[in-house]
Amino acid sequence: MEKIYLPFLTEEEILLTRLIAHLENTESTFLADLLEDPLQAVEQYTLPVDTTTPELFSVMPVASNLRNRGNTTAIPSGKALADLKTSRKNWVYVPYNFQNTRRSKAFFRGLKKNGYDKKTLQSYLETSDIFSYDWNDIRKIYQTYAPGSLNSNSLVVYSGPQIPDVKMVRPYHFFLPDLTSPQSGRRNAYPDGCLFLGDYDARTEDSWKELTDYLSDYMPSVGTVQVPHHGSKHNYNEALSCGQFLLIISAGYQNKYRHPHAKVLKDMLMKKVLHFWVTEQVGSMVQFQIDEEV
Questions:
Q1: Can you state the angle between helices 11-23 and 133-145, rounded to 10 degrees?
Q2: How large is the C-alpha radius of gyration of the chain?
Q3: At what angle do helices 11-23 and 29-36 cross, to 10 degrees?
Q4: Residues 6 or more apart from 220 whose CB is under 8 A from it?
Q5: pLDDT in the model for residue 183
Q6: What is the pLDDT of residue 69?
Q7: All residues at 6 or more sequence positions from 260 whose CB lies less than 8 Å from its CB, including other chains
Q8: 20: how many CB neighbours lie within 10 A of its CB?
Q9: Is the pLDDT reported for residue 43 higher than 70?
Q10: What percent of the chain has pLDDT over 90?
C-alpha cells in the first residue's frame, strides 16, 4: 500500500467518532490511534514485509475553509487523482468529504442539555467502564436525539473515466441465472464508472442534490453504485433506484443490524432495479464484463 486517503476530522468530530464507537462497542486501540495520530498509527501497524510507510492524505470537507493539521497532506474534495496505479487510461479516482453536521449537532445538543461537556466525555473515553450508568445514559441520549447511524464524515469516491467513454459493463452473478437479460425488464449494460457512497447520508432531497451537484461532471459515467451504509434505511434515497444504476449492497450475511433494510430492498424490487447483496459468502460475488462498445 502506497497511499492512504482519510476524511479530515475536526477535534469535535474525532471525539464524536470515538464516542459512537465506544457506545457501539466497536472502538479499538488502532481506531483511537488512527483518529488522534494517523501517521503514528500507520507506522505502528505497518507489516514487516512493507519497505516504506504509506503516504497519508486528508481529504478536506466540501465547501470548507478549515485548515489541515497534523502529519497528513491536505487535498481538496473533488481533486481527480490520476496518478494512482490503474490499468486503464483516462481513469481517475475522485474523493469527496461530505460533513454530516445535522445529526451530530443534535446529539451534542442533547448531551449538553443533559449536563455533559466535551471534557467530561473525553475523560469517559479514557477511564470509564462501558457498562457503567453514565454510558447507558449517554446511549439513551444518542438514541433519542440522533437515532440510526451517526457517521459525521464519510468519504464518497468516484472511480471511472475522467472523460466519458463508450465502455459499458455487464454484471454476472455466481450460481444464479443471468438477471441482466432484457426479459427481466432491466438494462443489460451500464456505464463503466462507479460511485462508492460509504456511509453518506443520502436520505433527504437536499443531501442527494448536494451529492449529485458536486459530481455533476461524472454522473453520466456512473453505472454502478455502492448503496450507502450497507443498505440502511437511514441513508438510502429512492433516487438510487431510478434505473440508471446497478446497485451493490455490501453487508454481512447475518449482521446484527439486519442490513439491508426491508424497505430498501422492497423499493428496489418494486422498481425492478438490478441489485446485488454482496456478503462474505463466495456465492454472492459479482463479476463484470467490460465491453468496448454497446
A1: 110
A2: 21
A3: 170
A4: 164, 191
A5: 45
A6: 73
A7: 227, 230, 231, 232, 249, 251, 277
A8: 19
A9: yes
A10: 40
Peptide bond into 260 cis (omega under 30): yes
Asked whether 264 and 247 are in contact (CB, 8 A), the reply is no
Distance CA 59, CA 160 (A): 19
Cβ atoms of 128 and 39 within 8 Å: the answer is: no
Cell for 225? Answer: 453504485
Cβ–Cβ under 8 Å, residues 273 and 185: no
Residue 248 pLDDT more than 70? yes
**Averaged pLDDT score across all residues of the chain:** 84
Q: Lowest-confidence range among 25-34, 74-83, 149-158, 200-209? A: 149-158
Locate 281 and state its grid cell. 459468502
C-alpha–C-alpha distance, residues 268 and 286, integer Å: 18
Residues pairing with 153 in the sheet: 99
Query: Which cell numbers hold the place of 258?
Result: 439486519
Burial class (CB in 10 A: 0-12, 13-18, 19+), 133: exposed
pLDDT at 285 over 90: no
